[in-house]
Amino acid sequence: MREFEYLRMNTLQEACSLLSEYKDEAKVLAGGQSLLTLLKLNMISPSYLIDIKFIPELNYMDFDEKEGLKMGALTTHRTVEKSPLLKEKFTVLPETELVVASVQTRNWGTIGGTLVHADPIGDIAPPLIVLDSRVKLISADGERTVPLAEFFVDFFMTVVEENELLCEIQIPALPAHTGVAYQKFSTIEAGIKIAGAAAMVSLDDGLCKDAKIALSAVAPVPMRALKAEEILKGKPLDDRLIEQAAQAAAAEADPVTDMHATDEYRRELVKVLVKRAAKMALERARAS
Amino acid sequence: MAEYRVVGKGIPRKDGIEKVTGEAKYTFDVTLPGMLYAKILRSVQAHARIVNIDTSEAEKLPGVRAVITGKDTQGMKFGFVDTPRYPAEQPVIAEEKVRFIGESVAAVAAVDEDTANKALDLIEVEYEPIPATFDPEEAMKEGAPQIHGEQVPAPGRKCAWQDWGVARAARSYNPVNNIGAAVNISYGDSEKGFSEADYIRDDTWVIPRTNHACMEPHGAVASYHPLTGHLDLWLSHMGFELKRYWISKTLEIPISKLRVHKTFIGGAFGGKAQVFDHEIIAAFLSRKLGKPVKLILPRDEVFTSTNNSIALKVNVRKGVKKDGTIVAQHVKLISDMGAYRGSVPVCLFLCHSMRDSIYNIPNLTHEGVGVYTNKSTTMAKRGHGSQQMTTAIESQMDWIAEDLGLNPVEFRLKNLRKKGDVLANRDTLNSFGLPDCVKKAVEASNWKEKRGKLGPGHGIGLAVSSMFNGSGYWPFTAGSIVRMNHDGTVTLYMGQAEFGQGPTTTTCQLVAEELGLEVEDVNLIDGDSELCQFDYNNFLSGGMFVSCKACLVAAQDLRQQVLKVAAEMLEEDAEDLNMLERRVYIKEDPEEGVAFDEILRYSIQKHGGDPLIGKGFCKPVPEIEFYPSLSKGSGRWTDAYSFTAAVAEVSVDAETGRTKVEHIWVGDDCGREINPLICEGQLQSQAVMGMGDALFEDVMFSEGRTINANFVDYEIPRAFDIPEITIIDASDPDPNGPFGAKEIGECARAAVIGSIVNAVYDATKVKVDSLPLHPEKIFRGLQEKAKV
Fold first, then answer.
1. Facing residue for B718 by CB, picked from A185, A188, A262
2. For residue B336, is pLDDT > 90?
3. Which of B176, B82, B69 is nearest to B125 (CA)?
4. Would you kindly state where each structural domain of chain A is located, as residue ranges?
5. What is the ipTM metric for this complex?
6. B-chain residues within 8 Å CB-CB of A190?
7. Residue to test with chain B: of A97, A189, A243, A274, most B Cβ within 10 A
């Protein structure tokens, strides 16, 4: 590990101003569950580590039926897992957290940090994508919001500019008769993910009004399976159609072979996981 | 069964409070005044000549105190095996060439770790790569790159076995086509046996390296005193004897000037048994600089530069009669040794001897080779050879049963040896709880209602294993002293190291039982080479049967002395006396007696100052003089065997191939349970570890580089992966064990692996030929089956 200067921030403004000064010489620490590993492995070697973990204005969770959910970037995985509000409004998120690594890691890591880290095997991005989430980015020059589906650029790369911070995650309230589910596959419980899939299904009068499918660990970025979604939209859903969508999603995926699995196996898993997630989402939509 | 006061009670571990409160001091926690920190530069080449090493820039860095290379340690060789046939061949620091990625090339001592690390970056090593070989079967072919030349010991060098006085005359072994070790054991007439068989099956398994995954990484603190020539050591280890012997031998420091201090040890599992380059390097640097030196390995170096378990390709050919009687077995092994022998020559032999106590096979041939490859070295891991063989043999037992329409339980029971059987090497099965292990595990798991009846995707499997209770190995004895204290308590000196297996508690139970004391009345001094006696330690699971027994014998000696003095004081015969609660009383009249402190004072006053010291010792396999032959398997191996029968129930996701273990039942024969709580802990940990081997674990290489040298990519079971585990005591106390006890720390892991392998087959009917049972392998197998 190279030497770096550790800078602890107390306000958002302070963090933004330092980021515009140091730009790519700095890395933002928002917990450290991923960043510290990269530092130890010498995969990154910043000169400055800007620690935002103690900025109080980045730690909150607000919900109203109109605006939906607004969650500060420093919300930890454990907070999401345990939140009664999320358990009621966005059940899939606390459910997903149960398979995110271990309790220790969930206590440590933050949602904002995880998203900016942009590891394609991350668990929380796919359900957030199918929930139509947006993220708010802030810098000394202003702020903007970006749909999460357009947030990821490549392995460990996002649209976040070097002077920007991810400060908020926004999730619109779920429409009526909507179900969401996430499925993960790993060899050991909560281990390295080999493939993951999230599905959202909205029903209207027995037909699929809207559907979203997001995959992870099977492409350089968490990705939407758009063709699979099209197969479902506007139709009465049944097992056969879901099977077709799952096949389409597997074809859309762009997995690689690594020490944990081959690309062919990952594609096969996409079929299974999309099928299971979509069926579960459908059941939930019907029940809601 | 005799009733005991302390033996057989599940009292909490004596070392538990220190461990859970963080008070326990591990090697890492040792800090000495003026201490320096050392780091090792590791080879990035799998096979290369070292053209030049330029250390000048590193030496100039402020804070650097020394930089050493193979030139400084020229000629120092170490190894787990060092016989005339297999002389130790691993250099402390690579000399003219490197043979694996991770081999030590240079080392630095500096004022802190960061400076040491920076200095490593400044060392320039010029390599000239040599073609490397990574696959043992490729390495065995004519024309493959040769990793070692002729292994001629330096003139005048005595090998360890000669130092120990147990060497058989033999010429040193000349590796041809990288074959660096060989075993060939046979009895009966295999050819005839196979000709009489009605059915022959031939199966091959490939078992990869797995990591010991100790919580505490390897490390050493060495402190050399220039004025006296003494070397103090704190190590993460399994026993001080082998470490101090090898550090003494390589550095030529008299063994009596070398002290290994007691440390807490965060797991070993066989992987910390041998001496390591980093330990010798720490000691070398400390002597060179006259300062204490700390050298702790980071986790990736534990994976790449110490050792993993032994990789084996196991081919088993078995001949049986129609009725299921086994008549012949022929085993062929190929071990992917890595760049140095490690413990492979021992493992090849243990693969046979660990299983020979299980089934009665009249005609047997067991042959194997260890092949050098440009990979890290390999070593014992909890069961040393047993699990590789058990996987191959126990899965084949099920497949034979299926082919012949036999019940797999009955098929095993029919072929089991019997209590009292004498093996070909003259080992005798004085205790043999295995049939009971099988019956109880089968009953507890409700096997009969489940096997073949659980429906698709669900299965149940059984496997059996066995384990030595110590064997002939340095220093071939364990000694102990139990001393009476002023207040009538005792102090016990035990050499055995506590690395989780429990002797700091169980030995005190043995001694307390013998002397009528409470466990709290036994003060323990342990794991210190200067304070304690010679100790055989725990090698090949001799902890209870050899080391703990020596402590019991010392307590028996003290008991006799105390009774003799008390008899004199009470004017009674010693036979009419007994002891309890720090006093000796008359059996017929328990109110009449004398307290231990009075007895001690009396002894000192009337017996020329005799302060009452009990002495005990125990030799593994007492009646033999020599180490068993590794290559021929002749000679006695051990004095008793432990046994396990494990049953596993699994479910397999038909769509993904992923296995979930639902329940493991472990029926175990460890002789008498001295402490059921510790026994349960040992068996649970073996069940979990075995599950890791069966399903997840595989140290993976790419061109000789370990690609998953961390606990993110190398996945081991965690708390939420652990299934329900039921422990079943099926013990047959052994007449030679302390209170009938045998080992409990190693036997079960192999049986658990086998039981999971068999359960997955029962659930899927997919035949896999390598571990671990990764979901993708099962998925492919299920796809193949669907096509047919």
1. A188
2. yes
3. B69
4. 5-51, 56-171, 178-287
5. 0.94
6. 718, 720
7. A189
Same domain, B481 and B461: no
Do B659 and B782 lie in one domain? The reply is: yes
Residues B115-174: pLDDT tens digits? Answer: 999 999 999 999 999 999 999 999 999 999 999 988 777 888 899 999 999 888 777 778
DSSP secondary structure string, B102-117? T-EEEEEEESSHHHHH
Of B514, B591, B592, B608, the C-alpha closest to B554 is B514
Tokens 């050919």 belong to B317
The CATH architecture that domain A5-51 belongs to is 2-Layer Sandwich (3.30)
Look up the CATH number of the domain holding residue B90.
Answer: 3.90.1170.50
Residue B1's pLDDT band, with cuts at 50, 70 and 90, is very low
Distance from the A185 Cα atom to the nearest Cα atom in chain B, whole angstroms? 9
Q: Are B715 and A262 a contacting pair at CB < 8 A? A: no
B691-746 per-position pLDDT tens digit: 999 999 999 999 999 999 999 999 999 998 999 999 999 999 999 999 999 999 99
Q: How far is B614 from chain A (nearest CA, A)?
A: 50
Rounded Cα distance between B481 and B551, Å, is 7
pLDDT for position A2: 78
Taking an 8 Å cut-off on Cβ atoms, the answer to whether A188 and B655 are in contact is no
Mean pLDDT of A108-124: 95
B112 interaction partners in chain A (CB closer than 8 Å): none
Cα–Cα nearest to A164, from A26, A47, A34, A36: A26
Rounded Cα distance between A34 and A120, Å, is: 13
- Find chain B residues with C-beta within 8 A of A268's C-beta: 656, 779
Chain mean pLDDT for chain B: 96
Q: Domain range spanning residue B66?
A: 27-132+218-268+272-306
Q: Is residue A58 within 8 Å of residue A80, measured between CB atoms?
A: no
Is the domain A56-171 a CATH 3.10.180.10 member?
A: no
DSSP B224-270: EETTTTEEEEEE--S-HHHHHHHHHHHHT--GGGEEEPP-B----TT
The distance of A130 to chain B (nearest Cα, Å) reads 24
Q: Residue B113's closest chain A neighbor by CA?
A: A1
Q: Which residues in chain B touch residue A260, judged by CB atoms under 8 angstroms apart?
A: 713
Q: Please tell me if residue A260 touches chain B, with a CB cutoff of 8 Å.
A: yes
Task: Give, for B344, the enclosing helix (H) or strand (E).
Answer: helix B344-353
Considering the domain boundaries, does residue B716 fall inside one? Answer: yes
Q: What is the number of CB-based contacts under 8 A between chain A and chain B?
A: 41
Give the C-alpha separation, B283 to B272, whole Å.
Answer: 17
Chain B residues in contact with A261 by the CB 8 A cut-off are: 776
Distance in Å, alpha carbon of B656 to nearest chain A alpha carbon? 7
Closest-approach residue (CA) in chain A for B778: A265
Share of chain B above pLDDT 70, in %: 100
Confidence check: pLDDT of B61 > 80: yes
pTM flag (> 0.90): yes
∠ at Cα B205 (B199, B211), nearest 5°? 150
For chain A, where are the alpha helices, taking DSSP H only?
Answer: 12-22, 35-40, 77-82, 84-89, 92-97, 103-108, 111-117, 125-130, 226-232, 239-252, 263-287
Which residues in chain B are contacts of A191 at CB distance < 8 A? Answer: 715
Two tokens, residue A155:
């392995």
Mean pLDDT of A251-274: 97
Indicate whether B647 and B607 sit together in one domain: no
Chain B contact for A13 (CB, 8 A cutoff): no
**For B517-538, what is each residue's pLDDT tens digit?**
999 999 999 999 999 999 998 8
State which H helix or E strand residue B694 sits in: helix B676-695
**Are residues B695 and A187, on separate chains, in Cβ contact within 8 Å?**
yes
Name beta bridge partners: A211: A201
**With contacts defined as CB-CB under 8 Å, which chain B residues touch A272?**
655-656
